[in-house]
Batch of 2 targets.
Target 1
Amino acid sequence: MAKSLSRREFIKIGGLGLGGLALGGGLMNSCANMLMEEQAVQLGLTGAANGSLALSPTVCEICFWKCAGWVHTIDGQPWKITGNEHDPSCNGRLCPRGTGGLGAYLDADRLRTPLIRTGVRGKQTFREATWDEALDFIAIKMKKIAEEHGPECVALFTHGSGGSYFKHLLRAYGSNNIAAPSYAQCRGPREEAYMLTFGEGVYSPERTDIRNSKCLVLIGSHLGENMHNTQVQEFADMVGNGGTVITVDPRYSVAASKSKYWLPIRPATDLALMLAWIHVIIEEQLFDQEYVKNNTYGFDELRQSVKKYTPEWAYPITTIKPHIIRETAREMGWQKPATLVHPGRHVTWYGDDTQRVRAGAILNALLGSWGRRGGFYYPNKAAVPKYKYPAYPAAKRSWRDAFPGKYPLANLALASGICDATLPSPERDCSFKGWLVYGTNLLMTLPQPKKTIAAMQNLDLLVAIDLMPAEITGWADVVLPECSYLERYDDLRVSPGRVPTVALRAPAFKTKYNSRPGWWIARELGLKMGLEKYFPWETLEDYLETRLKGAGLSLAELKEKGVVELPQRQPLYFEDGVQPEFDTPSGKIELYSDVLASYGFDPVPQYTAHEEPPDGYYRLLYGRAPTHTFGRTTNNPILTETMAENEVWINTKVAELNGIRNGEYIILANQDGAKTNKIKAKVTERIRHDCVYVVHGFGHQDKRLRKAFLRGADDAQLITKVKIDPIMGGTGMRVNFVTFEKVVQAV
Ligand SMILES: Nc1nc2c(c(=O)[nH]1)N[C@H]1C(S)=C(S)[C@@H](COP(=O)(O)OP(=O)(O)OC[C@H]3O[C@@H](n4cnc5c(=O)[nH]c(N)nc54)[C@H](O)[C@@H]3O)O[C@H]1N2
Ligand SMILES: Nc1nc2c(c(=O)[nH]1)N[C@H]1C(S)=C(S)[C@@H](COP(=O)(O)OP(=O)(O)OC[C@H]3O[C@@H](n4cnc5c(=O)[nH]c(N)nc54)[C@H](O)[C@@H]3O)O[C@H]1N2
Ligand code: SF4
Ligand SMILES: [Mo]
């Protein structure tokens, strides 16, 4: 370790990256790598004379943008991680979190060996076990559940690349109940809204052509705090090129600070604003008439339906003045079709989220931005054949059977739904007896954590596969330590983008402690369960080689290049003279949806009011900080130095009214009496008076996370109420209201 950069040096760099963010258009820490080089020279770290430098390709796992990078080592010791210059997902620059990715490897609090619970569930008493013991324990329990209840009674919750092996394992075992919180707690409503409108989803990374956009409308999307790499780079470029930004946010976000218009909307009323925009764009004929005529279905119904939604109608609801609604609608019209109404990503807000996002999709359709430069491009994905396995056994039941007639347009399993269906209820049989939880900290991630605990208490088997002793691992029967992404191979990254690429993650370091890569864990478990025909490969290198061969590539090439570009498969934009086709029932962009109508939902979005906070209470809003990813980095020894705890943003007048001083620790209590740890008040004009804001991912409750334990507050503890989207089952979580309590000092 003597020759690697010290933590302090890393932090300075992270801090500088952030300075760039606050100061202007330079939103990325492009200077960070240069500075690292400089410091490396000072430390005598450069050149083979001082040690042998090596590079190995990686794909970042600190968030799900999946930037490709290089891990630099000196004499096998960690030095730094930089972006891969040939990767269109990062353009050679990682965000500050990715740069701090070494912290995931270095964290001394990592899980070190398999653990088997010894006392009652939740009491956190475990004994260390060998891999053999731990996997035998799981295999025996899973076989028993399959015999007694059927394999469908085991569900997988997963988030992150290694989840793919466990999906495969579960399907081979006979269950299709695979859920990710990134659907019903994140972007599910967006995918369904765009599917209904355009016949395709937005996908990840988003197909947004921000780089070429002339007018960008951000409705709650807090780019710059939401640090999804190339989106932020393109946003900075677009601002630098003089593009118009319209930001709708009750909080003066980083994005708002780069905007021509900041619309500090009353939370929960965005749909009213969007309907008024549609009204103006239609009435003032600001829409793309030819595009709408050729490509859309239901324009007249839409026009009739939004007649009533005038800016004057929207004003008292949203608090946005009518002339501002008109002016911003005209800006959008002038720049069309290079006007991009950003579809958002985390969109599970108020329970009518599919309809709200659909209103944005309709705006994009009217402005003709779908399939056009500066709007949404048509993504290209590399043609890399899947590994050929024998067919999976047919699953007899699915999570859907627990919800007859509900959430008809959910295309993926609901993490929250599986949790509900694990609780005994007179309405349904208790369907789930076993949970495998890979890389998702359900107690922070799902709303209503008490319900999650009650559900877990009904299980015959709970396995957590994690890097860290996150809260979920404290409830598990068996805890399996995965090694960090820097110590393992993973499946190829074949993400959609402007150009089709394949990227490789290879191990840069030997596996630390008694941890193992996900692929190894899933395979060993499969072998113990008699599923060897589904694991014909022995190492992931064999598996990768087979897949790459199918695309005319090799592992050696990927190891050398990290990222390989393959031929383009479709044009990015609609071509002149070619009539586009849409995978919707009408074959057109559906402004009016017969599918929604057939299920009894509004075929064009209609406004319904949401509950407002009672007196003395404020709506709880939450979001991201540039140097953290949820709770997965809040114990990272490098990233915690940039931000160690969260604060609660409180409007200056509200703070005065409640006698709260800036920097004072307070406790947040919600409408149901749920309370947080103490959290620092940030008294600011940058937020409306009717809401407060916290960054999600802090306030860890597990003391094994020594840096994160009780640092700041966890918003999930206050999300005791949800409003469920009837269309697809997403859990609207911004429907909770909080008040403040003083921290009583111990005498
Ligand atoms: N209250 C509230 N809830 C939310 C949100 C919110 O803002 N507020 N956001 C929602 C959104 S948008 C999303 S996408 C979801 C995200 O939810 P999750 O993806 O579940 O996010 P985390 O809570 O960070 O959980 C990540 C877990 O993965 C573990 N981990 C990290 N690296 C590895 C690894 O390499 N291998 C393994 N096996 N485990 C690893 C971490 O230790 C941690 O336990 O949460 C949703 N839920
Ligand atoms: N640094 C960092 N970046 C990340 C992540 C991370 O953990 N860390 N996570 C990634 C993931 S998985 C996701 S899904 C995205 C999430 O990021 P986004 O999709 O951009 O954000 P949201 O969570 O929808 O929204 C947060 C913003 O919405 C505002 N807001 C709250 N309520 C309302 C409202 O009623 N109306 C309007 N108009 N605005 C409102 C908040 O003030 C805040 O600015 O970020 C991604 N990027
Ligand atoms: S955006 Fe940042 S954290 Fe996310 S994958 Fe890229 S470098 Fe890693
Ligand atoms: Mo998300």
Target 2
Amino acid sequence: MNYHVNEKGYFGDFGGAYTPEMLYPNIENLRKQYLDIIYEPKFQEEFHQLLKDYVGRPSPLFLAERLSAKYGTTIYLKREDLNHTGAHKINNTVGQILLASRLGKKRIIAETGAGQHGVATATVCALKGLECIVYMGEVDIKRQAPNVARMKMMGAKVIPATSGSKTLKDATNEAMRDWINNPVDTHYIIGSVVGPHPYPDMVARFQSVISEETKKQLKEKTGIETPDYVLACVGGGSNAMGIFYHFLDDEDVKLIAIEAAGKGVYSGKSAATTFLGKEGVLHGSKSILMQTEDGQVIEPYSISAGLDYPGIGPQHAHLFKVNRAKYVSITDDEAIQAGKLCAELEGIIPAIETAHALAYLEEMTFAGNKTVVICLSGRGDKDLNTYMNYFDL
Ligand SMILES: *Cc1c(COP(=O)(O)O)cnc(C)c1O
């Protein structure tokens, strides 16, 4: 089975580039050049140097002993929370800013949900001295205020998206609109494995450093480079693709992607895309998305701004359809409880997005001692207010 993109930009039935005509030259230019640019030795050298000296990679693979004891299995946490700016998002923005420089772009735009991608984009724009505009839903601007301040500190302009549910999907629409109006000088740094080809494949390649390191680190620690299970939360799906990537062809490794069920999968307040979605086109690619009978996108909901998205990347849609990865969902309450448990047992406060992945441990049963790797996609500093309100801290 082929889990990777084909020459037409598809993963099985999903993917492609469904874009307005105005963007065609931009996307086409990117499609033709991205592989040559990113695998050019000088690019790779610069990319890995920045990942090391600026981001702080490799991120540790941490044996979580007390979580392991609680669940009766061996649990490792891949510590993307320790990256500069606190999540995995920076791996992709470092890659894309180097790409934008090589394409001769002077102006950078981005969309953001939790604000992590906006912060990661503002960060690399400051690093390289490029103009930065971030689109963010009005609702998210309120619930992620510290991240808005961070972006502004670094000189980025944050523009509120005021349509629809005023969250990530709407911010993405605004960013697309901007790009259509400024196709020549602007590069759009998409923050997940979504969007028109080549974005899903390109972002997955930048994030694949996560599983590349995980394999090496597991080998060093256990002598075996493949775990039994790999778990990650899924919004658009970039941290999950990053930690799945180099395990895709190791068919014995069970891949589990955890979506946000919000207040319950069938409550009407959910972002559990594979449960509620159907095939459709959103933000430039064919994938699975939450939509009404007549194809209107259903407003998603999750307590975590980073998972509050009505679709998943096309590669995930493919992995779901061919059963290479299992897609499950976790509610707001289950996630928040798992976040608290991780804090108490390991001294690590995870992002609420990440806490969805941790919560799935409650639903797993292990025959004997298995090796489980969880992508700890980000730290919970940005979510302290949500935790405080929930637990009355
Ligand atoms: C953005 C974000 C996510 C969700 O995005 P993916 O593209 O699905 O990885 C998950 N965790 C954290 C900490 C995030 O910031």
